[in-house]
Design a protein that fits this description.
By secondary structure, the chain is an alpha/beta fold. Helices cover 47% and strands 16% of the residues. The chain has two domains: 5-36; 51-290, 3-Layer(aba) Sandwich (Rossmann fold), CATH 3.40.50.150. It is built from twelve helices and nine strands. The longest helix is centred in the N-terminal third of the chain and has 15 residues, at 63-77.
Length: 297
């Protein structure tokens, strides 16, 4: 209801006279606060009736958030901002990958209304494309969308003369069904307890992605397990850093740098997760030498 200024003043006077001003003010404040969540509530109502994923949600980032992620990856890697955005475009326009994931989701019965989008995984992909890691480990594979994103990046790296290998750790043998076809040529899943798999792993790790058991203690134990296996420029991406401080704490203890990128999903009720980024002093120094100023074209 839109009232003229004199009418509003008259209404306030009346409410005060009959003792209802505190109630009216509370109603106004509630309505004002709820207006900031109206869009999310509408998304929730629509999402509840769809046959989509119940966890590990798929969504695009807002355009502003996508730009922030590009700058974050550029600042850590030393690669130019424009190069990072090209990698984002490369992943988002990969119709073969989308079709592969969609077919896998359909055949596994994960949800007929699922629309595959990559969210923060754009950052994973761009780091792999610009840093050209030889060995990547992701703990926690679930359906395998992340595994497919990672191996698709490794596939393109290999075509450019930079071979790499993906290893996913997963407790459930039913998980990881999407890692098939040509993507399986660039990676494999190590089934069993993640900590045990990491303890037995005997290769130097260039990129480690934590996305397994989301308890803080287990997350921290994974970092402790792989610290001696990281290459000098080894990068750690934490998929739990929006709810725990374990990667930040680990980075401080090991003399590493830490940053956090916070997601802002577009057209989805989920508030977003993020990427915890832990990188070594040597990588930071190399980044500074490569690109002391990263500018937007």
């Amino acid at each position: 209801m839109n009232l003229s200024k004199p009418s509003k003043e008259q209404l306030k006077t009346t409410l005060k006279a009959i003792g209802l001003m505190p109630l009216a003010r509370a109603i106004y404040r509630r309505r004002f606060a709820m207006s900031h969540y109206a869009r999310q509530i509408a998304y929730i109502k629509r999402w509840a009736w769809l046959d989509t994923e119940d966890s590990n949600f798929y969504y695009k980032l807002t355009s502003r958030n996508r730009d922030q992620l590009a700058h974050t990856v550029a600042a850590v890697s030393g690669a130019p901002y424009i190069e990072i955005t090209r990698y984002f475009d490369e992943l988002e326009s990969d119709n073969e990958l989308r079709a592969h994931i969609k077919r896998g989701i359909s055949s596994a019965g994960y949800g007929k209304d699922i629309q595959v989008e990559f969210g923060r995984r754009l950052g994973w992909y761009a780091f792999i494309r610009c840093l050209k890691p030889q060995v990547i480990i992701e703990t926690g594979v679930d359906h395998g969308v992340g595994a497919c994103v990672i191996t698709s990046a490794l596939m393109r790296n290999a075509a450019e003369g930079h071979a790499g290998r993906y290893y996913g750790t997963e407790l459930r043998e039913s998980a990881g069904k999407l890692l098939g076809g040509e993507y399986a040529h660039f990676g494999q899943i190590l089934y069993g307890d993640s900590i045990e798999s990491l303890q037995q792993f005997d290769q130097t790790i260039d990129l480690f992605i934590n996305d397994s058991d989301h308890s803080a203690d287990y997350e921290y134990r994974e970092y402790q397990t792989i610290v001696g296996k990281l290459s000098p420029n080894g990068l750690i991406l934490g998929d739990n850093s929006h709810v725990t401080d374990k990667l930040s704490r680990f980075s401080t203890e090991q003399g590493r740098h830490f940053l956090f990128f916070a997601e802002q999903p577009a057209d989805h009720w989920y508030p977003g997760a993020g990427i915890g980024i832990s990188f070594s002093q040597t990588m930071a120094q190399a980044t500074f030498r490569r690109s002391p100023i990263v500018s937007t074209p």
